[in-house]
Amino acid sequence: MDVTLLLLALFSTVGLVFTYLAVTERDLVRAVVYSAVQSSVYAVLLYLLRAPDIVLVYIPVSVGLYPATLLFLIGKTERVDGE
Amino acid sequence: MRRVIVAVSIAAFTALLAYATTVAGALGYLGLETRALARMFLALAYNPNLRELTAMSPAAVAAIVWDFRGVDTLYETVVFYMAIISALAIYRGVHKVGGGGSVGLSLIVRVVTKLLIPMNIAIAVSIAVHGHLTPGGGFQAGATLAVVSVLLAVVYSVNSFSRVGVEVSKAVALQSTGLIAIAAVVFTPLIYGVLTGAQAYLMQNYVKVDSGFHFPAEVLGQLISGTLIWLNIAEFLAVSFGFFTVFMLLSLREEVVKQPLLGEGHGS
Fold first, then answer.
1. ipTM exceeds 0.95, yes or no
2. What is the rounded average pLDDT of the residues B195-218?
3. Residues of B (148-177) whose Cβ lies below 8 Å from A
4. Which residue range(s) make up the domain with B20?
5. For chain A, is the Cβ count within 10 Å smaller at the N or the C terminus?
6. Residue B154 and residue A68: Cβ atoms within 8 Å?
7. For residue B131, which residues of chain A lie inside 8 Å, CB to CB?
8. Model confidence pLDDT, tens digit, residues B29-56
9. Which of A75, A74, A42 is nearest to A58 (CA)?
10. Are residues B18 and B143 in the same domain?
11. Mean pLDDT of B98-105
């Protein structure tokens, strides 16, 4: 069995778990952190799929810019998601 | 109940996607062999023997992005610039970023960040100027440098922008410099063609079958791949300071921007 395929399966499963956590979490700040973890795992997946150009733009966007934008927006609204 | 629905729908979507892309072959052939199109790009990206067809860049992705489909990338830059313009239009009247008494995070975090920021800048510049040789390029480098603006806003508070001398007007000026540089590189062949009467094409990088015009592919023995290095550096300026502008405006506190924003009411 190819090691790359095993690692792809492992990291995409981790991404799936954090997607579930991000969708169900009521506290928006924690949801953003879960979502950032999921994006970081996706950066690893893109590296395993041999797309280094995408990895280089995905890491700053997923770890820095995207959570920061969402946190700025959450700062202007309510932290806990209501029904 | 809600969690069960979410879990089941995620699992069902994943299973469907996995089935479609592997067994059903919805994305076509996914093998390890290189396809004919990829072989063509790999053969032409850096090939001094085929002077009329090559982009003179060993980084095949950079060759495709700024040479083979350069106009696409040009319009992507335009779309990005439009988004920055709309952000500036919403925040019109807000001239000064800063004010307020917050001091940022703890001393440990601030010292560590102070050490990280120079590394971040160095890596961003390296990604930009090596964009035609290794994976990376203008947009990647710009996104990397934009992280500095987030660190400044979060770790040192909004006031730090004016303390390190970055203002909205300066960021917009640097972004526009990048865009003007892109335009200069794009129009240089055309101006050359008009002045000398020779055949030259818009955004031309290297010699073509009916045109001898080309940007220098090497300077002092160093491969710079003609237009690619200049376009990468210009795009780096445009993207990074575009992000800087947006994050400076987004990080403003509501009470600071409310007055200028409400000042321009309709009909009042």
1. no
2. 82
3. 150-151, 153-154
4. 1-33
5. C
6. yes
7. none
8. 666 677 888 888 888 888 888 888 888 8
9. A42
10. no
11. 62
